Amino acid sequence: MAAPSKRRIETDVMRLLMSDYEVNLVNDSMQEFYVRFYGPAESERCPCFPCSDSYPVRGGVWKIHVELPDQYPFKSPSIGFMNKIFHPNIDELSGSVCLDVINQTWSPMFDMINIFEVFLPQLLRYPNPNDPLNGEAAALLMRHPKEYDAKVKEYVSRFATKEAADAAAGKDEDEDEDEEMSDIGSISDDDA
N or C: which end of the chain has fewer CB within 10 A? Predict the structure, then answer.
């Protein structure tokens, strides 16, 4: 890996480690790690979006797997949900994310903080049923938005809890006790 790319990976991952996100590196590598991600709590969506009164992903906790290619930041990271989520733009089985800003229009101006503070919250707030990875979720959202919201809430309560997120990433029980902000000292060797 080229020195500037390696430096950028280290800078971006260190910023993420020093943020409020819980980050667990895989095998001490800054190129593969998990981030605990909480669903955005806002109860508002675009006024033209047909939905129920409550926000269906509120309270959800997901373990996000991130892999940074050697060419990062010139090539986008690979992002995947480890525990289940019912969303038109997220494959239910693999957890792959269909998001243009990550998959097609990625820019070196973006960093890891952008993904967790802007891109993923926007994806959850504003699902795009016209570009689905999950056809069932897209069809339900377009035809029966209240039923879609109910199914999202069901998935959140069943699969998007702290315990489900921990289990999805193969986290050890003694690591479960550490709910504080991660630092280099809390690197996990067993999340592979």
Answer: C
Tell me, yes or no, if the pTM score tops 0.85: no
Sheet holding 78-81, edge to edge: 23-26, 29-38, 61-67, 78-81
The architecture (CATH level 2) of 3-169 comes to Roll (3.10)
pLDDT tens digits, residue range 37-74? 998 876 444 444 444 445 788 889 999 999 999 999 99
> Measured between alpha carbons, how far is 151 from 66 in angstroms, rounded to an integer?
26
Alpha helices in the chain (DSSP H): 3-17, 100-103, 112-114, 120-125, 135-143, 145-159, 162-168, 173-176
49/72 Cα distance (integer angstroms): 35
Distance CA 168, CA 161 (A): 10
Q: How many CB atoms lie within 10 A of CB 94?
A: 10
53 phi, psi to nearest 5 deg: -70, -30
The one catalytic residue among 46, 48, 51, 98: 98
User: Dihedral of CA 167/169/170/171: which sign?
Assistant: negative
Q: Is 46 a catalytic residue?
A: no
